[in-house]
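[Meeting: bench + compute handoff]

Bench side (C.D.) handed over the final construct sequence. Compute side (W.E.) agreed to return the predicted structure before the next meeting so the bench team could plan truncations. Sequence as handed over:
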Amino acid sequence: GMIILGLISLLAGRLADKIGPRILLIACSLFLGIGYALSSQIETLWHLYLFYGVFTGIGMSGAWAPIMSVVTRWFVKNRSLMSGLIAAGPAIGIAVLPPLFTLGIQLFGWRVSFLLLGALSFLIIFLGALFLKRDPAEIGASPYGVGENSASGRILQDEGISLGEAIRTRTFWLLALISFCDFLLINVIAVHIVPHAIQLNISPIQAATVLSLAAGVSIPGRIFMGGLADRIGNRPGFYVCLTLSVAAFLFLQFSRTLGMLYFFSILYGLGLWATGAIMSPYLADLFGLKSHGSIFSATVFSGTLGGGLGPVLVGYTFDATGNYRLGFLLCLFASIAAWIALSLVKPIRAK
């Protein structure tokens, strides 16, 4: 499933470079709205896989790369901060939508709630897409922070290298490795931290708060790290995130109480989850904007490979050993590998 989502994201990023985000996001709004609406009619298991899994999956995965690429194209000054604000959106949705949907089920039932969710999703994304431009040069403007010279803004949009040229560089593959490790770690924690806490004799309700805390911290964390990266540079900002990630997974090796897991969640939410605010602007620094959507979506695809592998691999180690020690040790090695990969990244084009 993760690989399919990665392939869709790969296609969406390339199309965003060619035709812009508007048509893509309108298509995503249709898939998402129809998927949720059809989910209100689920009767069998294959309905669930097709309507909720495939339709809504296409709608959600096809939007991420184009939106992040658009933000990167529209801003030079405060680019990482703006990316952080956008990256905080999914975390806000995770925090806000489940309780609202639960309230809707209590008031109207689950079928009507899915219909309402489909209608709202379609309208919000569709209406927003109508006003979205690929880059400011389309309206004769320049990116924020460049000045009023629209000609220099157009030149900026065309600077850089293609995806084909990028994948022939070591820098691209190092960034793909970082994305692979980051997604791997994020999905491992999403799937396994609550069972791990329960195995430590923490109640299921309290165990769930460990993941909720990480998600909550990541909201201001992505915004803060984005602003920090604008001040100190995207590469140093990335170092801060990955250093916090290494510290978090090192601390996790010795975490045996709820308080210690909470501290892990704070480090994890501020570090690993905040990398989403910096990757897109950092790619623009290294490869330019010419094929930014394609290059960014390619790193996302690499991430989905790690995101699919990680939970399965750690689950296998748990089945083999009866605990998460080996699995979380592998996570520590993955976080260190991402840090080392960043240290090996070198500029590939003149600034």
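W.E. noted at the follow-up: The first helix runs from residue 2 to 19. C.D. will use this when planning the next construct.
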